[in-house]
């Protein structure tokens, strides 16, 4: 039986994490474990999900690293180093997903591929309504009533573009097919390890997911577009001023050239060895 580790990287805005946690509680296929990997939040996780812990039928781990700026790559590698599952499911903390999300992944995921989902962006008003609805009796159809129906059409259009990219790649007309989008995807842990995970030299926001995806393709681990029975949603939040430009463009350009010429699938600082040496704290919140 394949075990699923759900990995959620966080940094404050933990009311959104509560929403994702509620979605996990209502999955038709439950995960083996949830790993919350914190990039130095000042907010306390248990203040937002403490009342829900007893409802969980899965193990819960909390991993914390000090806030030294945006270090998502290290936070993700921290999580995978402590993951016990065969399948890794990555979700941003501000995702809302239907009840069959993990079931879809477990049924469809194959070795040497990643499944890429396309959550749609909500407005501030929709976000507020969704969070209010989540804290009542959970029914995903009630959440769908709060959003604009155009989002469903938008999802289908993007998935069609992804499918076309996959076909073009399969015809060997491009070196990369479906682009990996970091907010929502899944792959086998062995495939993550094969390319040594995320490159921790990507410090600060930008290009870290693209680099990871490029190296997956270089290692012949290819992408496939995927959707659940219903649409997934990305909760609105203000745009962080630090994310308007990235300092990682130079390193990305260099690494992309090597990866897409199939000369490089791995990275020096990743899953096997962390770049930074500050302490990583690990807490088991629940054993199931």
Describe the 3D structure.
This protein has one domain (4-286): Alpha-Beta Complex (Spore Coat Polysaccharide Biosynthesis Protein SpsA, Chain A). Helices cover 35% and strands 18% of the residues. It is built from 10 helices and 11 strands. It has an 8-stranded mixed sheet, with helices on both faces. Strands 5-10-7 form a 3-stranded mixed sheet. It is globular, with a radius of gyration of 18 Å. The model has no long low-confidence stretch (mean pLDDT 95).
Pick out the low-confidence regions. none
What is the residue-mean pLDDT, rounded to a whole number?
95
Structural class: alpha/beta
The helix tally amounts to: 10
How does the SSE layout of this entry go?
Blueprint: E1 4-10, H1 14-25, E2 33-38, H2 46-49, E3 59-65, H3 72-81, E4 87-91, E5 95-96, H4 101-108, E6 113-116, E7 120-121, H5 124-134, H6 140-144, H7 150-170, E8 184-188, H8 189-194, H9 208-218, E9 222-225, E10 233-234, H10 249-260, E11 280-286
Parallel strand pairs: 1-2, 1-4, 2-3, 6-9, 7-10
Antiparallel strand pairs: 3-11, 4-8, 5-10, 6-8
């Amino acid at each position: 039986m394949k075990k699923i580790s759900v990995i959620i990287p966080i940094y404050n805005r933990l009311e959104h994490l509560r929403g994702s946690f509620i979605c996990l509680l209502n999955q038709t296929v439950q995960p083996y474990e949830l790993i919350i990997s914190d990039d130095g939040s000042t907010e306390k996780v248990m203040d937002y999900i403490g009342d829900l812990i007893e409802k969980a039928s899965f193990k819960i781990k909390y991993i914390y690293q000090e806030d030294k700026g945006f270090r998502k790559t290290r936070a993700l590698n921290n999580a995978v180093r402590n993951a016990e599952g065969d399948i890794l499911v990555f979700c941003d903390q501000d995702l809302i997903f239907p009840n069959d999300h993990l079931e879809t992944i477990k049924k469809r995921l194959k070795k040497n591929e990643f499944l890429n989902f396309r959550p749609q962006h909500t407005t501030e008003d929709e976000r507020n309504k969704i969070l209010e609805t989540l804290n009542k009796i959970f029914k995903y159809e009630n959440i769908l009533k709060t959003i604009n129906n155009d989002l469903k059409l938008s999802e289908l259009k993007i998935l069609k573009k992804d499918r076309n990219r996959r076909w073009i790649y399969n015809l060997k007309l491009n070196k990369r097919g479906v682009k990996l989008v970091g907010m929502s995807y899944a792959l086998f842990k062995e495939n993550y390890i094969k390319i040594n995970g995320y490159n921790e030299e990507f410090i600060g926001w930008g290009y870290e997911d693209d680099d990871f995806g490029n190296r997956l393709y270089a290692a012949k681990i290819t992408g496939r577009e995927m959707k659940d029975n219903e649409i997934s949603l990305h909760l609105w939040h203000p745009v962080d001023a630090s994310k308007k430009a990235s300092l990682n463009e130079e390193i990305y350009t260099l690494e992309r050239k090597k990866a897409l010429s199939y000369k490089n699938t791995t990275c020096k600082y990743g899953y096997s060895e962390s770049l930074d040496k500050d302490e990583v704290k690990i807490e088991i919140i629940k054993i199931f």
